Amino acid sequence: MSTRIKGSDTSAVESGASRQVEPVRRAAAPAASTAAPAAPGDSVQITDAARRMAALQQNIASLPEVDAARVSQLSQAIERGRYTVDPGKIAERIAQLESDLAAASQRRQP
Fold this sequence. Notes:
- There is one protein chain.
- By secondary structure, the chain is mainly α.
- It has a domain at 69-110.
- The chain contains three helices and two strands; from the N terminus they run ββααα.
- The radius of gyration is 31 Å and the shape is flat.
- It starts with 12 loop residues before the first strand and ends with a helix.
């Protein structure tokens, strides 16, 4: 038993209600630069939040991965012994991160 998926048979097909179903005719593919006109009832609405997110994504994509000026500034501060670490501030930031992650996890659960 063989099944032809990409066959070249273009004859009409009998349906169960004794009607013929015409084969689909393949139209020429439209040029890549032309868009098909939208049907009268079709529409797309982009929310303001989606627009803002797209703008932020573009802004982030245009930024360098490394802030070379900040790296240089920190390197010089370390070399000169002027870079100080505030353990209390680090602990506060870690605690805040944990709190934010817990809140985000609770929002995702039904």
